[in-house]
Amino acid sequence: MKILKGIGYAVGLPTILVLFWAVATAGEANFFVPTPATLLATFAETWFGDRILSDVLPSIGRLIVGVTAAIIIGIVAGLLIGSVKWLRDLTEPVLEFFRAIPPPVLVPVLMLLMGITDSMKVVVIISGCIWPVLLNTIEGVRAIDGVLSDSAHTYGITGRARIRHLVLPSAGPQIMAGVRQCLSIGLILMVISEMFASSSGLGFTIVQFQRSFAIPEMWSGIVILGLIGVAMSFIFQFTERRILRWYHGLREVENAV
Amino acid sequence: MPSETTDKNNVTKPAPAGRTLQNNDAMLSVRGLKKVYQTDGGPIEAVRNLTFDLRAGELACLVGPSGSGKTTLLKCISGLMAPTEGQVLLDGVQVSGPPKKMAVVFQEYGRSLFPWMRVRENVELPLKNQRIPKAERDRLVDEALEAVGLSHVPMSYPWQLSGGMQQRVAIARAVAYQPEVLLMDEPFAAVDAQTRADLEDLIRTVWKKLGVTILFVTHDIDESVYLGERVIILSSSPTVIQEDLVIDLPAERDQLNTRSLPRFTELRHHVYEQIQLAKAGHRPAAAAR
């Protein structure tokens, strides 16, 4: 019963929105806005074919590689910079500078330097995704409780054990907040990296449809992007709930008091 | 009060008022400890000169008015902070970082346990870190949880427990670590009065059972007299020892009878007076400059 209710809430609003859309587009035929039925039909014929292999999966693959690399590099560098005071003082202004640069402006430069390759696209994704993870990790590491740190120290928990049992879990909530931002930036950059001088990928395909006035096809591509975003968000929430179960429990107890 | 020592700095520094022992008898020795904090507003002398010894298996309480540098002293003894002058010796070896034979229980139980670990994991982690074999680890953890009366909640998270129970977990973690010296920094200051009485008795029980040396820092005069075999009274800051008092109460103590003994009242009275003197800025004769 509880599960049914949950599903009801999850699909309720989407159903209403689709119905509204169907009613609104039922009367006249607007060239730029397809009906749900048209879109569904186009969706199937556009994407359930070669395009899955040639465009969708490679795009998702680059997204996963880029986002994963950004998360790993961000956490490792964040742990290092957050733990070492002089390194923090040294890197802070530089990090602020690089963070301020919008990654799309790097695309033409990277294209010249690396060519129109998969690695170029992955680098674009990393260059934008790394910041929230890196900066949040640094903040999380800095915010470790003094008493907890002293406790660990008196029990001889130092070096790698300290990172594993104290620093990482303690910075966990902050790191996860960074990862959440990183995922949405990743999706945006995945599309952008394929919009310039590319010959395959979701971003390229959608732009191609736009230019050839294949309007329902273009919409179906946008729908795919939305679905990828939803899937990423679900995976994230599921993982976050597992990793930070203690944190949510602690927060509930604190709020109840 | 012990006579003046032959310390060569005797002329410039106040003489130590704490009880000292022959070198090989002392488990913990504090010698001429001084701590000066360098701040933007100039140096602040928190601890001026402290010298005392703890015999192996002794339970001593440190009391002092608030702001008398109790926490500073404890941090220096536990090796978390380096003293400006003087030294701390544990079993004859100078303390330069947190020693393996020492465990510390902090006042802020909510911030000294790992909230991402269950009770059992919290107690087990220091042992795991020392690579103690699993079988022995399990035995130590079980015994420690049993000793503090928490065998029934090993799978709970600390934040699911009451304050008193959390502090019990912290004590169990210290007990399982098998320290020779246990430092406690106002461990019961943040729990309610009834829990506090239970925890005081728990400390006496654990102390008798394990024969561990305990230095118990508190601002509560009753608590110090009830718990200790000895009470070291600190002056106000910059701290020296105001008095080193032997508590000659019977070894078997309980909350009702011990606290109603005439001797308990006398001792409590005496400590109270000394603390009041300390607050008023009075300093022991030996420390006057």
Features:
heterodimer, A: 257 residues, mainly alpha, MetI-like fold, 11 helices, flat, B: 289 residues, alpha/beta, 10-stranded mixed β-sheet, 8 helices, 10 strands, 33% helix, 24% strand, globular
Q: In this structure, how is the largest beta sheet of chain A organized? A: none
Q: Report strand % of chain A.
A: under 5%
Rg of chain A (CA only): 23 Å
Low-pLDDT runs of chain B:
1-16
- H and E string of chain B: EEEHEEEHHHHEHEHEEH
Please give the most extensive interface between any two protein chains, plus how many residues each contributes: A-B, 22 and 27 residues
Q: Which CATH-level-2 architecture of chain A?
A: Orthogonal Bundle
Work out the number of β strands of chain B.
Answer: 10
Number of helices of chain A: 11
Task: Characterise this structure.
The complex is a heterodimer of chains A (257) and B (289). With 257 residues, chain A is mostly helical. Chain A has one domain (39-256): MetI-like (MetI-like fold). In chain A, 85% of the residues lie in helices and 0% in strands. Chain A is built from 11 helices and no strands. In chain A, α2 (36-47) packs across α10 (215-243) and α3 (50-83) packs antiparallel against α8. The radius of gyration of chain A is 23 Å and the shape is flat. The model of chain A has no long low-confidence stretch (mean pLDDT 90). Chain B has 289 residues and is of the alpha/beta class. Chain B has a domain at 102-178. Helices cover 33% and strands 24% of the residues of chain B. Chain B is built from 8 helices and 10 strands. A 10-stranded mixed sheet of chain B has the order 5-4-1-2-10-9-3-8-7-6, with helices on both faces. In chain B, β7, α6 (193-210) and β8 form a beta-alpha-beta unit. Residues 1-16 of chain B have low confidence and may be disordered. At the A-B interface, α7, α8 and α11 of A face β6 and α3 of B.
What layout of secondary structure does this protein have?
The complex is a heterodimer of chains A (257) and B (289).
Chain A: H1 2-26, H2 36-47, H3 50-83, H4 85-100, H5 106-114, H6 118-142, H7 146-154, H8 159-195, H9 202-211, H10 215-243, H11 245-256
Chain B: E1 26-39, E2 42-55, E3 59-63, H1 70-77, E4 85-90, E5 93-94, E6 102-105, H2 109-112, H3 119-129, H4 134-147, H5 163-176, E7 181-185, H6 193-210, E8 213-218, H7 221-227, E9 230-234, E10 239-246, H8 262-279
Parallel strand pairs in B: 2-10, 3-8, 3-9, 6-7, 7-8
Antiparallel strand pairs in B: 1-2, 1-4, 4-5, 9-10
Helix pairs in contact in B: 3-4, 3-5, 4-5, 7-8
